[in-house]
Design brief:
This protein is α+β, with helices and mostly antiparallel strands and about 270 residues long. The chain has a domain of about 190 residues. The protein is about 25% helix and about 15% strand. The chain is built from five helices and seven strands. The strands form two sheets. Strands 5-3-4-6-7 form a five-stranded mixed beta sheet. A hairpin with a 4-residue loop joins strand 6 and strand 7. The longest helix has 25 residues.
Length: about 270
């Protein structure tokens, strides 16, 4: 009798154990919250890089002179721009328009207006060494980059880079050139806003190889950055040959009026 009771008790205990083991599978579990999305930039991780700069990695840093640009440094750059202005007028008198450079054999812009201006800057011998039907970076022409005249330097050597750049785009003195056409700048007669209130060349923020036909692209809503020589502003060459100094913070809307040759937006920057 006692053995049967013990066996029955063992069977009951075994059944109870099996029932308890099944309870978790039948029990309603609490819904788990979804894990938050993984942070693409966890703490301590730098954000993705922004748009890359188009500045030539070999170009000198800007500004070249971390000064106010006072005399004699600013005077030297102003004299350079005055010489460039006089040369532009002499070129215009000889050809009937302002220089826009040279096209290569494919009809694309190949050499800058700065090369075309050489004979009018007493650089006839250097000009004759260029192959004007080849691009600026052809095997022949790129050897002449190191021979950049001092008139294109901001007062110190910049290894073939110049900060003196013109403006290109609709309504500027260097309008967009059509492929296959000989590059040609505008005439002084088409600068109806007035020569004294129209800017031709400026000290750009980003320098370029002096022979490269790479100018400051302009649109009324896209005014190029100036001031790569001095931290306090930039010198600009007006179409009448005068040179002005625009201080940092000069309004883009006013600069846009100075760049356009016939928009009717005449401003007096001397006031």
């Amino acid at each position: 009798m006692s053995v049967r009771i013990i066996r029955r008790a063992m069977l009951l205990a075994l059944s109870a154990a099996i029932g308890l083991a099944c309870l978790p599978a039948c029990k309603k579990t609490k819904p788990t919250e979804s894990a938050p999305p993984e942070n693409p930039n966890p703490p301590g991780t730098p954000p993705p890089p922004g748009p890359t700069s188009t500045r030539d990695p070999g170009a000198p840093s800007s500004p070249v002179f971390n000064t106010t640009g006072s005399a004699p440094l600013r005077t030297a750059s102003a004299e350079n721009l005055k010489q460039i202005g006089l040369a532009l007028h002499n070129y215009h008198d000889a050809t009937g328009s302002l220089p826009a450079g040279y096209a290569d054999k494919t009809g694309k812009p190949g050499l800058s207006w700065r090369v075309a201006l050489l004979p009018y800057l007493e650089q006839e011998n250097l000009f004759r060494q260029f192959k004007t039907n080849e691009p600026w970076d052809s095997e022949h022409n790129k050897k002449l980059i190191r021979m950049m005249p001092k008139v294109y330097m901001p007062g110190t050597s910049t290894n073939g880079y110049t900060f003196y750049r013109g403006f290109t785009g609709p309504g500027t003195w260097l309008p967009p050139q059509q492929k296959g056409q000989s590059p040609r700048g505008v005439t002084f007669g088409s600068i109806t806003d007035g020569l004294s209130v129209t800017t031709l060349v400026a000290e750009a923020y980003d320098p370029v190889i002096w022979t490269k036909p790479d100018e400051l692209e302009f649109a009324p809503n896209k005014v190029p950055k100036l001031g790569g020589v001095y931290r306090t502003g930039a010198l600009v060459l007006m179409a009448d040959g005068s040179v002005k100094f625009l201080r940092s913070g000069f309004e883009n809307s006013t600069l846009a009026k100075l760049i356009q040759i016939s928009d009717g937006g005449i401003v007096d920057i001397d006031r």
